[in-house]
Write a structure and sequence with these properties.
By secondary structure, this protein is mainly α. The longest helix has 25 residues. The protein is globular, with a radius of gyration of 15 Å.
């Protein structure tokens, strides 16, 4: 296996560990009507601190939309430093859709450049 492939595999394992830690923490929390509570935990901040490299991993989780994974849309907005006013956090289903659409739009723009 090439070194790059090993590095990517290790990164994905690290991302998965961080993700699982976050899921474990939020699953142990009381159910909140405001999802911002799930973004205030240290494990969420650790996901965001990974930067651009974790975005595709988070996007995969967001596409599957398992449980509270829709909250990961907020992580992507923070990592990408997008204007959060363009992504209404009051409707998390809509936020999820908007973030996925923006990521797809960026991919298409990148392909046009190349």
């Amino acid at each position: 296996m090439p070194i790059q492939g090993c590095t990517q595999k290790i990164q994905k394992m690290n991302y998965n560990t961080l993700y699982q830690n976050w899921r474990h923490t939020i699953n142990a929390m009381p159910h909140y009507s405001k999802t911002t509570a799930y973004t205030q935990v240290e494990e969420f901040r650790e996901l965001v601190q990974q930067g651009e490299g974790i975005v595709s991993f988070l996007e995969e989780k967001l596409q599957k939309n398992d449980g509270l994974d829709f909250v990961l849309a907020i992580a992507i907005v923070q990592i990408k430093k997008w204007d959060s006013n363009k992504f209404p956090a009051t409707d998390m289903t809509e936020l999820r859709k908007l973030v996925l659409a923006q990521l797809e739009s960026e991919r298409k723009q990148e392909k046009k450049k190349n």
